[in-house]
Amino acid sequence: MAQQRDAAIVGIYEYPSRYDPDVSAIQIKAKSIQAALNDAGLEWGDIDALYDAQDGEGGGGLGLSAYLGIKPTVIDTTQVGGSSYEFQANHAMRDIAAGKASVAVLSYGSKAATLRTPIGTGGATSSGSWQANMEAPYGQTLIANYAMVAQRHMHEYGTTSEQLAEISVATRYHAMRNPDAVKAMNDLQFVGVNEITIQDVMESRVIADPLHLLECCMVSDGGGALIIASKDVVKDTKKSPVWLIGSGEATKYRENGGDITTSAGAQGAPIAFAEAGVTPDQMDVAMIYDSFSITVAVMLEDLGFVKKGEVGDWITGGRLKFDQPGGPALNTDGGGLSSNHPGMRGIFLLLESARQLRGESTSQAADAKLAVAHGNGGLLGGNHTGGTTILAAD
Amino acid sequence: MSKRPMPQFFEPDTQAFWDATKNEQLTYQQCSACNEVVFTPRAHCTKCGGSDLEQKVSKGEGTVYTFSVVRQNRNPSFADLGAYALAYIDLDEGFRMLSNVVGIANPLEDVSVGQRVKVTFEKQDEGEYLLPLFEPI
User: Fold this and answer.
1) DSSP class of B48
2) pLDDT 10s digits, B79-92
3) Which of A196, A224, A389, B91 is the most buried (most CB within 10 A)?
């Protein structure tokens, strides 16, 4: 299939504060949309397509339209957890290619830090659904669910905690070069806002075996927005466009006899790479949802960077750092582990991909031409989604 | 005894499973049309879509597929447990179930992938249902 370049990211904005008691989530969304439009050189009235994960007070396709005061003619409220934004970007790409939209907006706002939302360690409550009724009695925290994936990966393939720690180390290396991430870690009272070693990760306390504190993402406030435009609109925007060239979507869930070490990404990512006509080894940058170290390890395999079971050896030695050979440069903004995780990180994967392909990252990969953003929504060891978006520099 | 969050009804898919626990029976479903083992319980076969499912009683024996020892849970229902082992159990009849491994001195040392386990039923502080948990054989 010949690569299509119908839609591009033309405006981006990441809300800088990770702890902001004086703003609402929906205000974060509106402020970010305004700033992203400004980044693109577009106007409020140019928006004709709204994508929303139904986050923020009174959000949703109708609620956010009303709050913003816009009347879009394409409305998509895909909500698949942290991967919602890759799904939405993929849908925007399709809608624009089909001629149904010309200026699409995606936004996110969350107050998880201010509200002290116990995302990782809250445990399930019994909501009375078919699934909650079977799982809520057992005290499965979100972290413990991911930890069960790590445990099985270690059992099957000999992966070690020291190997998984490479992901935390590379991510922090990038975070220390991003002033917003450094401020985030200070504002959220991280112990030791500095580069970390594998030993530091191993010595941090275990939250759910085998995952240590420094393998777990932060809980922050935050949000952002991005504008995706048609190739006709792109001609008049301010910055270099970042083209969307491949998309993949998939689901995975607990299955009798299933392989917990393989995620939805293994189904969806090959579709995205095939559509884009590129291969994983061509990627300069990999923006992979780092809820936990194990999430990235599994995705690197499922996206096709390395064979299933071999990620441990492959990431040993620091290849994921932006200035090291081998690549890809991983989560160069500092990731969910060390920069920004208000609950649904997927939008930041696209924002940093765009920064890299514009040459604007604080950990800029040399001559970056291609990036993959892969979001994971839900529970890696249970029900989850995988959304893959492949991006290319102009 | 414990204060864990227990199932809430009306919810017709899992009602029969929980009713069976009152007789200390661990149950699963099998499709009459295609023989697929279905779990967690529901009203249709996940392989063929058929709606004729037979509820069967498991021997309750299986293997730990994977586990994690939970050190921190901010849900107060689990505050009394200390560190506890969450696990996926592969039952010998071919279904995978989330549960806990109990009846061990130290969850940090006494649980392993591949370990053989058997179901045990725990009475709860409130309600009529017993909670299926697993202990080493």
Assistant:
1) T
2) 888 999 999 999 99
3) A389
DSSP-based three-state secondary structure for B81: helix
Residues A251 and A387: their CA atoms lie apart, in Å, by 9
Residues 10-69 of B with CB under 8 A from A: 10-11, 13-14, 17-18, 37, 39-42, 65-69
Six token digits for residue A118: 């116990």
Closest CA to B134 of B85, B94, B93, B92: B85
Q: Cα B14 to chain center, whole Å?
A: 12
Identify whether the C-beta of residue A71 lies closer than 8 Å to the C-beta of residue A256.
no
Q: What are phi and psi of A211, to 5 degrees?
A: -90, 130
Give me the total of CB pairs closer than 8 Å, taking one residue from chain A and one from chain B. Answer: 141
Three-class secondary structure of residue B57 per DSSP: strand
**Is the full-model pTM beyond 0.90?**
yes
Residue in A with minimal Cα distance to B101: A138
A271 at B interface, C-beta within 8 A: no
Angstroms from B102 CA to nearest CA on chain A = 11
Instruction: Check A134 against B87: CB less than 8 A apart.
Output: no
- Please answer whether residues A294 and A208 qualify as being in contact, where contact means their C-beta atoms are separated by less than 8 angstroms: no
Minimum CA–CA partner of A149 in chain B: B66
In whole angstroms, give the CA distance from residue B44 to residue B39: 11
Residue range A239-288, pLDDT digits in tens: 999 999 999 999 999 999 999 999 999 999 999 999 999 999 999 999 99
